[in-house]
Amino acid sequence: MSDAAVPAEVTFNRVMLKISGEALMGDQGFGLHPPTIERIAKEVKSVHDMGVEICMVIGGGNVFRGLSGAAQGMERTTADYMGMLATVMNALAMQSALEGLGVFTRVISAIRMDEVAEPYIRRRAVRHLEKKRVCIFAAGTGNPYFTTDTAATLRANEMACEAIFMGKNGVDGIYDKDPAEHDDAVRFDAISYDDVLTKRLKVMDASAIALARDNNLPLIVFPLDEPGGFRGILGGKGTYTKVS
After folding, report:
1. Range of the domain at 124
2. What is the domain-level CATH number for residue 117?
3. Which of 80, 90, 94, 225 is 20 to 30 A away from residue 40, measured at CA?
4. What does the pLDDT look like over 114-129, one tens digit per residue?
5. Could you tell me the end-to-end alpha-carbon distance of the chain, in angstroms, rounded to an integer?
6. Residues 6+ apart with CB under 8 A from 199
């Protein structure tokens, strides 16, 4: 990607945006909330319009969470595959919203389902990014026992992303304890991968944090529900926590 294609104020040229499936629920307790999906799509479009190449991974917890199914007695592998299918549904919903805004998008699945998504081929995905298409990676890594956090970190490394942006609802970064339950919770402006692991901070699962650390991939945790937050941070502004 040429330097001329990106405005001077942009701090990253290619990024991974990781959001939870629950972020698509809005105020509902389950499923998809189209106005919320459209709001997030507009945030993505605003960054795309800056010339930034965007990868996305969306969780599936608003539809089905493999760990929850396993906890209720379902066989873990089957539950995880069901969770992967939930992420495909979310990816298709986000693709529809983005293309409704005029942003060309590709859903790329780790599990083959050729009628609704492309199979994952790294070189093809990179080419989509170079052509300014948003790539939404679905179905996790295609393997049970791995979360979408790990999938996002894996794909970010494969796509040569410069950072992972993790959008959170209701929180503006990483705290030493849950700010919703503790008034004295302290927010970190920056923290190391090792401190996240040793303090057992619930940001990403441990394997995802270790994979990011081993490949020197920065993680930026920011408020997804703050209008213009994603775009602002890419311009060097806003409130967030950087893990590096």
Report:
1. 3-243
2. 3.40.1160.10
3. 80
4. 999 999 999 999 999 9
5. 24
6. 176
